[in-house]
Amino acid sequence: MRVFGNVTHLCKYYNYFYIFVLVVTMLCYTPGRIVYAHQEEPNVEITDIGSFIDAMGIKNIVGTVENNGDVPVQTAIGINATTGDGNAAPALVTEPYSKVIYPYSEVPFKVKVSPELKPVGKPFAYQARNVNIPHYDVIRLNYTNAPIQNGSLIGSVKNIASFDVYDLTIYASAHTQNGSQVDSVKSHLIPVLRSGEKIMFIVSPDPAVRSKVSFYSCFGVDFSTTNMKIKIGENRFITSNMTGLATISNINADPSTGSILIDIDNQYPVPGPLTLKIPQTFSSPTIFVTMDGTLYKNAVTMMKGDTYVDLIIPAGKHEVTVSGIG
């Protein structure tokens, strides 16, 4: 078996700086002068295009979409089509197998074209846009690239985070012996993968092409990154949302001290802001904020019943601790 680490985007992995927020959710801002890459248009490319007809007579157009830019991208995949009488039909639009395509990575897709329509031209990126969505380095996959006899591939997935992950799928590209992409595959939806839990997964190609599959590549995972529950005590949680451009490897809560530890890696050469909003529900007489063991006395302010924490995160790896939450 082959073990892979940073698997949110395995084909062309890149880490990004992002910003964490707490509010019973955490909210943050990113000034334009800091995230200079956002001034550029999304740089995406469609590659490895292939197609096949399935048992229902539906044409399946497969491929991968690459993000060749410096920031995460969201995009749909479109293809033009005509009706049986030659008239233009509305463009067929589908989502790639991951909601976010991180810098210098790629994600497979599949567009289905009904027998009543004829595709025109090649697939294209539809409404691509840069986004401030972080990479969670919390999922580990264990698998081999070679399929079993029926063309499927079986592996394991583990959540190494201190919080549960919801709506998880594992995706990959299926290839023929000569390297051509013949299908795009993904696992069944895993509603929740608990902290520390490890389960098996399977991805299978369409029966029409499974005999052609020789190996898989471009494994990755997609899961919900909104309203993530961080446990801070018995039946007590903080719901967190993150935005920005960095890698957070974990968020650990210590109920005995009412603190949260955020492991953050700013891999950009410029500092980036971190803003935490702690709602009144978790108010405390005193909230302390440290980064790498240094106390930041001026980082905490009160406004309209909420506590705000504002930090500038230098380049590199850091530990941010917020104590006295409750």
What does this 3D model show about the protein?
With 326 residues, the chain is mainly β. The protein has strands spanning 2-4, 19-22, 44-53, 59-67, 73-83, 88-94, 105-113, 117-130, 135-136, 139-143, 153-159, 165-175, 181-186, 190-193, 198-203, 215-222, 228-233, 236-243, 247-254, 259-266, 272-278, 288-291, 294-295, 300-303, 306-313, 316-323. It has three domains: 2-35 and 226-323; 43-129, Immunoglobulin-like; 137-215, Immunoglobulin-like, CATH 2.60.40. The chain is built from no helices and 26 strands. Strand 12 (165-175) and strand 13 form a beta hairpin. It is elongated and about 70 Å long.
Fraction in beta strands: over 45%
Number of domains: 3
With helices defined by DSSP (H or I, 4 residues minimum), what is the helix count?
Answer: 0
Could you give the count of β-strands? 26
Shape: elongated
Q: What gap, in angstroms, lies between the N and C termini?
A: 44 Å
Short structural description:
The chain is an all-beta fold and 326 residues long. The chain is built from no helices and 26 strands.
Strand and helix layout:
Blueprint: E1 2-4, E2 19-22, E3 44-53, E4 59-67, E5 73-83, E6 88-94, E7 105-113, E8 117-130, E9 135-136, E10 139-143, E11 153-159, E12 165-175, E13 181-186, E14 190-193, E15 198-203, E16 215-222, E17 228-233, E18 236-243, E19 247-254, E20 259-266, E21 272-278, E22 288-291, E23 294-295, E24 300-303, E25 306-313, E26 316-323
Parallel strand pairs: 9-19
Antiparallel strand pairs: 1-10, 2-18, 3-4, 4-7, 5-6, 5-8, 10-11, 11-15, 12-13, 12-14, 12-16, 17-18, 19-20, 20-26, 21-25, 22-23, 22-26, 24-25
